[in-house]
Amino acid sequence: MERRQRQGRAGGTVVAGLMAGVCLAATGCAGERPAADDPRPAADPVPVLHKAADTLLAAGSSKARTSMEMATGGTRVTIRGEGVYDYTRQLGELRVRLPEDPAGNDGRRPITELLAPGALFMKNRGAGVPADKWVRVETATLSDGNLVTGGATDPFAAAEVLRGTRTASYVGRTEVEGTAVRHYRGTADLALAAQGASEGGRDALHAAAKGFATPEVPFEVFLDDAGRIRKVEHRFSFAGGHATGTVAVSSTTVLYDFGTPVDVRLPKSADIYAGKIAEE
Q: Per the count of CB atoms within 10 A, which of 57, 107, 194, 279 is most buried?
């Protein structure tokens, strides 16, 4: 019990430290190709999107790229990640790179993140953590359910948000990195998503439904002809306190190379740091 409490406190400090560090730098984001017209009728989008996460389970695995853009107090920053994900085991590994500091320096090593049901593991976190140790955070203890905390949205969690789709419309045909896709736009409800989520993601989505400024999440999603997510964008918002006000977060996840081999091994207990996490 004492160890769990220490992990919860450490998790809260990790969130504060990472978010504070990120908001010191600024960078931009790229635009998106416009959707092409598609004269063919599309199926009712809502049930199609409800099944998107299950389609990823059938796909098995993929590579993933993530981008998280935050806007607060007139400052806009972007965090990028890249890695692999095993949907069957709900295990993934991402290398997350923080933006440059105001002086243009990019000297920090990328943070290695291991994603697992109910947990986030981070290495090279800094802030007093030994270089050979991992920080473990229980995602259900985070107010955002780890949809934004680590600077990257867990790819399967991003898909499970779509289980909460309330309204959606079909935009048309376009391409994502050379792959023909169908473009949908809509709004998901995190509380509804939690009800239909997998056992590993249910508690985290329940926490996010309560922790964000609103449980409603606008999204854009691009599905290939097999129904697999190729790109999904979510727009979250949460209260950042008196100094920053409401923080707007745009999270983008791109999935590709389905079926790629994935070998994610979670750290042993002896390799997990349970001490105090210093704020940066």
A: 194
- Residue 182 is inside which H or E element, if any? strand 179-189
Which residue did the predictor score with more confidence, 238 or 11? 238
**Owning domain of residue 142:** 2-29+42-266
Q: Looking at the domain assignment, is residue 123 inside a domain?
A: yes
For 26, the token pair is 């600024």
Q: How many domains does the chain have?
A: 1
For 90-121, what is each residue's pLDDT tens digit?
999 999 998 766 555 555 678 999 999 999 99
Residue 36 lies in a domain: no
Reference 190, options 223, 146, 224, 231; nearest CA is: 146
* Phi, psi for 36 (deg, rounded to 5): -90, 160
Question: Which of 127, 134, 135 has the alpha carbon at shortest distance from 278?
Answer: 127
Q: What angle do CA 115, 128, 272 make, to 5 degrees?
A: 40
* 126 within a domain of the structure (yes/no): yes
SS3 at position 145: coil
How far apart CA 115 and CA 23 sit, in angstroms, is: 23
CB-based contacts of 121-124 (< 8 A; 24+ apart in sequence): 121/266, 121/267, 121/272, 122/14, 122/150
Residue 52 in any domain: the answer is yes
Are the beta carbons of 273 and 134 closer than 8 angstroms?
Answer: yes
Query: What is d(CA 50, CA 41) in angstroms, rounded to the nearest whole number?
Result: 19
Which pLDDT band, with edges at 50, 70 and 90, does 73 fall under? low
What CA–CA distance (Å, rounded) separates 104 from 23?
14
Q: What is the number of other CB atoms lying within 10 angstroms of the CB of residue 175?
A: 14
pLDDT tens-digit profile of 34-64? 444 455 545 689 999 999 999 999 999 999 9
First CA to last CA distance, the chain: 27
Separation of alpha carbons 25 and 69, rounded Å: 11
What pLDDT was estimated at residue 126?
A: 67
